[in-house]
Design goal:
Helix content: 25-40%
Largest sheet: 7 strands, mixed
Order of helices and strands: HEEEHHEHEHEHEHEHEEH
Number of helices: 9
Structural class: alpha/beta
Strand order of the largest sheet: 4-10-9-8-7-5-6
Distance between the termini: 42 Å
Number of strands: 10
Length: 309
């Protein structure tokens, strides 16, 4: 059944108030009205199978009854308190048990925010400035992350190429870029810049590319040898490749990881788990406000669905 305002009407209105007429990540000519389970409907009433699943978080589908029940129960008790709450402590205990590298965790709002904090934390912990990432790896929208994601200029490794305007040269100078899955190149690069590298950040499964045998193991070996923080960006792989993420599936445990998408279930809620040694500095500025009990209630319900137990 058609709604009173057509999809064309909505796209025309969007063109007036949104850059490029959309939210930035998908074809702006599609305007979704509602969703249920594995299906979505646009503003003209057309029905689609939802293979996007919200870019990852809707693993259980839209409107899962146990998730809705948990969220609705919490909504009546309050949305956010700016303080600790029991749901957050309970969820942290669950996550520490689930994720191999997690001695402690910090809650944040987006995957990109988690990656940004991971790089900052590594710099604070080591007292070093340089970040090593891999060409084609996606780690959010920070200045450091938007280096050689999809470079339009061909340069020699390890030189970084900014993917966007507005990035200071000083940021580019502190980035080292390596080819994904080239263990020997990574080994040599780490050895050459060992005294300057704060962390190596990597998607253990980069986009659609699985790691070659020995690649992640080499990164773990070399970072441990030189006192460098190893960060796994598991925003995509966490609770999907295995309950404990890629680090469980591949048997390589980083110092820090970032988690999101599935664990938030559609709420803006992500995680920064890490080994206790990585939290030895002050973390007062690491997003102390992101402990909404309504988000946590949703994640507790999701955990009950995806847990192997």
């Amino acid at each position: 059944m058609k709604t009173s305002i057509s999809q064309k009407d909505w796209t025309d209105r969007a063109a007036k108030v949104l850059p490029a007429a959309g939210f930035g990540n998908f074809e702006p000519g599609i305007v979704i009205r509602e969703a249920k389970g594995s299906r979505v409907w646009d503003e003209d009433g057309a029905e689609f199978i939802d293979y996007l699943i919200g870019s990852g978080p809707m693993l259980l589908g839209h409107g899962h009854p146990e998730v809705l029940e948990a969220v609705e129960e919490q909504l009546a008790k309050g949305l956010t308190f700016f303080t600790n709450n029991a749901r957050g402590i309970e969820m942290a205990e669950v996550l520490v048990d689930a994720v191999p590298c997690a001695d402690q965790i910090r809650y944040v709002s987006t995957g990109g925010e988690a990656d940004m904090y991971a790089m900052r934390l590594a710099r604070a912990h080591t007292g070093r400035d340089k970040i090593l990432k891999f060409e084609g790896g996606y780690h959010g929208m920070s200045a450091e992350a938007l280096m050689s994601l999809s470079p339009k200029t061909l340069v020699n490794f390890p030189q970084a190429v900014s993917d966007t305007a507005g990035t200071p040269e000083s940021v580019r100078d502190d980035m080292l870029i390596a080819p994904f899955n080239d263990a020997e190149f990574a080994r040599q690069l780490i050895a050459e810049h060992a005294d300057d590298i704060a962390c190596v950040i990597v998607e253990p499964l980069q986009r659609l590319i699985p790691p070659e045998p020995g690649f992640l193991e080499t990164l773990r070996e070399e970072t441990e040898k030189h006192g460098i923080i190893l960060v796994f960006d598991e925003v995509v792989t966490g609770f999907r490749l295995a309950y404990g993420g890629a680090q469980e599936a591949y048997g390589v445990v980083p110092d820090l990881c970032t988690l999101g998408k599935v664990i938030g279930g559609g709420f803006p809620w992500q995680l920064l788990p890490g080994r206790r040694k990585s939290w030895t500095i002050s973390t007062d500025q690491l997003s102390a406000t992101r402990r909404s009990p309504s988000r946590l209630a949703r994640s507790v319900a999701i955990r009950l669905q995806v847990s192997p137990d």
